[in-house]
Amino acid sequence: MISWLLLAVAAVALLYQSAALTAAAGHWLKSRLFPATPPASLPPVSILKPVYGLDPQLPEAVASHLVLDYPDYELLLGFQRPDDPAIPVLQELLERHPGVRARIEVVETRAKNGKTGVIDRLSRLARHDVLVVNDADITVPQDYLRRLVASLEQPGVGVVTCLYRARAGSLAGCLEAVGIATDFMPSALVAPLVGVREFGFGSTLCFRRADLEAIGGFRAFDDYIADDYQLASRIVALGRRAVFADIPVLTYLADPGWLAVWRHQLRWARTIRFSRPGGFAGMPVTHAGLWAVLNLAAGNVGAAAALWLARSVMGAFAGFAVLGHWPALAAAPLIPLWDLFAFAIWAAAWCGNTAWWRGHRIRIGAKGKIIEKREPEAPGA
Prior knowledge:
The chain is an alpha/beta fold. Helix 1 (about 1-35) packs antiparallel against helix 11, helix 1 (about 1-35) runs parallel beside helix 12 and helix 2 packs parallel to helix 3. The protein is about 45% helix and about 15% strand.
């Protein structure tokens, strides 16, 4: 009986891997054969970048925003504290690029989600009507704004977000980077195929000021942990579409150890659990490596081999071809092992409602609201 049940689960998991491979291939083909065309007249853009602390790759990330191939844009860097160690470093960097309209703003905010409080203030200081928000550690290509605006100008589009790949300097961080490229990103590409219309990542959110004002600005959801999801879902509720840009961006995972990676992944998992409980409950179907191991233990060798192969191929294609993450190709046969870790995170996410975020321990309530935020106990967690 158990053997037959595992075979049934394996079949469902195999279908998911097929769907993920199809979605990744579709995105890859569309990005290369039919990229969005930039408008003849490019609108001016304001980039809003909240910063908290001096991570190792922060100067490189900010520097990539100072050499963009775009005729008219400004960059606003927002901090929560005037004594943030990143301020003098970035001020010196900005002074080396006097031709770019860029400045630092220190924002006092009492928002439970301090990052959203900073972005809200920056959005009101911004001069332009097309806004781009991305996390501090995001590094972008030179044609970043051209590609975003090209997608935003497509009929009905209200939000443009970017897939991303990650770099890390530790073994734990490298494992997490492979998981992002071969598990999290493919699941995002599958979402539209199963009717999920609202999606958006902190890696990039490009939208119009008019739509932001229509949903009440960032202050309307500055007590939610998933500000990126809240922004995208509320603009989609206006009747707009959310789409992926045809370029990925790069992030850096500064967390050095296994505990930090565990906490990082657990925060993401609990954020999804409270924001989209239905979708979160079904996530084990994506953990093909787990079902391959269990089927092997039950003697279903053929099913186990098929699942392992499908997971490896899908992960390698999505990670390398779509995102340019070469470790996904080099470690393709080991990709299913990530699913064992991912399943443990999924199970742990049901056992509590707290998460660590930049040293703060927060308690999450219904729909992802932050109901309690404690002072930092472990900086960098």
